[in-house]
Amino acid sequence: MPHDHHHHDHDHDHLSPSGHPYRKDQDAPLTYHQQMEIAVRELLVEKGVTTKAEIATQITAMDNRSPAIGASIVARAWSDPAFKDRLMTDGSAACAELNAPVDAMELMVVENTPDTHNVVVCTLCSCYPRNILGLPPDWYKQREYRSRTVKEPRKVLSEFGLDLADSVRVQVHDSTADKRYLVLPMRPEGTEGWSEEQLAAIVGRDSMIGVAVPQV
Amino acid sequence: MATDTKTPALPVGAPVRLKKMAPPGHVRCPWYLRGKSGVIERDLGLTGNPEMLAYGGKTREIRLYRVRFRMQDIWGDAAEPASDTLDAEIFENWLEPTNAS
Fold first, then answer.
1. Hey, what domains does chain A have and what are their CATH numbers?
2. CATH number of the domain to which B92 belongs
3. For labeling, which of A23, A201, B23, B31 is most exposed (least CB within 10 Å)?
4. Alpha-carbon distance B29 to B19, whole Å?
5. Complex ipTM, two decimals?
């Protein structure tokens, strides 16, 4: 900042008229990896491997991924037993039917039952079924969730507001390799006769990771 | 490049122990499971070995398994209810069969 004040943090006391902090302009030089990304991208375009339009289209497609895709898959599985069988046998193939391809990664669907509750974590990094749930929540990638979920899952779930009976077995999935996991929650009572659209509306992101269950 | 057999060496239910080793570099086996015992939950087929692929090396395909552990076998007395379980994907180079479960 071009003022003469010495050592004063200006980030916090400059607020916009609406009361939000201004975001700093990105005036710093590019980092090594930013330069590398631009160089590789420009080379790929120059050599005709891809096009700028293709890259923009892909970014849009990735930004459009959200838990709504996963919710529609769950709602279909609740409504159509034959689809559910296919989903449990080969998750990727079943999702492709719904126009929600999971690429090369193989999707494994794990089903909650009255006896078993599933919860997903990735201790090695942050593997997450982005194709059908979008970007992972911040806590999913943090050390606390990753380290505690494999050791004291019941305590972690309780902090999310989910207290499980002792009679329910907790099944943790440490997603350590190339598979991606989707929890198929139990269909809540009181949803008989609901349309797939109505059902999808009660299936939240957290219930497909396994830290919550759908509520009516 | 496939291994000699299409049949998994370790059948579902086979008791296994994860090797307790600490090689340097890109390693795809969680630390907290090394030296722990579980059973094969399912075979996930042949795949490139990521611990070699990470260095651009040539890799023969190896088998990936899902191994199921009882929480008590991982954490001992510190475990929550002993009947709770954890599944993890483990590459065959980390597994050795055991006789006792």
1. 32-63 (no CATH), 67-209 (3.90.330.10)
2. 2.30.30.50
3. A23
4. 10
5. 0.89
